[in-house]
Amino acid sequence: MKRTAVLLACLLFAFAATPIFAEGTEAPTQVAQATTPDATAAPLKTDTGDTAWVLVSSALVMLMTPGLALFYGGMVRRKNVLGTLMHSFVALAVITVQWLLFGYSLAFGPDIGHVLGNLDWIGLKGVGMEPNGDYAPTIPHQLFMMFQMTFAILTPALISGTIAERIKFSTYVVFIVLWATFVYDPIAHWVWGVGGWIKGLGALDFAGGLVVHISSGVSALVCALVVGKRKGYGTDLMAPHNLTLTVIGAALLWLGWFGFNGGSALASGELASSAFVATHIAAGAATLSWLLVEWSHRGKPTALGAVSGAVAGLVAVTPASGFVGPISSLIIGLIGGAVCYAAVSLKPRLGYDDSLDVVGVHAVGGTAGAILTGLFASTAVNAAGADGLFFGNPGQLGIQALSVVAAWAYSFVVTWIILKVLDATMGLRVTEEEESDGLDLSQHGEVGYTF
Q: How many CA atoms lie within 13 A of 101 on its CB side?
């Protein structure tokens, strides 16, 4: 209890002092995201430095999905390791094709009613190597498309952690196509697309707090409720079979997140550097806060706790990463780690089976990060953004809260409909016998380890 009291006191002190520290640290930096040039401007021209950075960032974000496969794969039982790895790996193939054919056009194409892109860019028609001034005026349009594709791939793969060890593979493949089309693409348009209604409100989501983490985390909650608990949940031992894999996967996620957040500047420069720094600081702070709370609560700091804390911090800082400086990112990380630990700890009391804690880390962490952005955002860091409550703009907090409610409600309702349709047509779960045998054998006819 003493440790908990000390930790809470430190958090409260840091939270209260943030406006003072943040203003002093962040004020010298004046950077902004690229804006659309006016009609009299010179023709758009590709910048090789910006292009190189976004190429590297795209590769880093692509690496996050195999990293997620290892992160999740180590946390399941041995009989399900290949099935869990496949959930992430197959998303690389399936969502790539979906994004190419129509997903990109739905998310970023010319606006229809502020809610969706039209199909003008179907099959990447009109998406060439010349820059697009609406989104990224210094890099090839196809590169912007590719960078956004890596986000679209990772997001449905995140959901798989909730339904691990019991979902039919065939149903999962159809689910991620439908989910990407009817949940991810519309929300991406709302938040990032030209004409999107949440973007029009002035909501800040630099790299995907709403689009990636809330959408996947809330959908994961629906999956846990609709698909149901694993056979033996609450009575059988379901300990991680290989935490070494999980730690390696977490390290790859941390590495990839530099491209995830830093690359969202869409240019190499001060804004990318600021987001890069904020990302690392928040991850380190959240690792420490999760470990300290866990140490106080359970008596020992664990490796699983350390990597979970790091991911929680990365999730929490994602929407804020391009709008906050070092001290603000430190506070966001400290709060994110502690809040996500509390959310994960409540899971047994709430009674739902979220196999790999997607809800506690992504839904809760993404929500906390979006709200904290409304507190700590500063135009001294990014003039293209907005000030938050602590910098004299209380209205931004309300805008952030409204955007969170919209993302929660839409993700919950549409995911529930998709799952109910699939359950009625294909079935969601493997049989009890197949679940007992494990997904590796029952779904793929192979095993992860031969002794």
A: 9
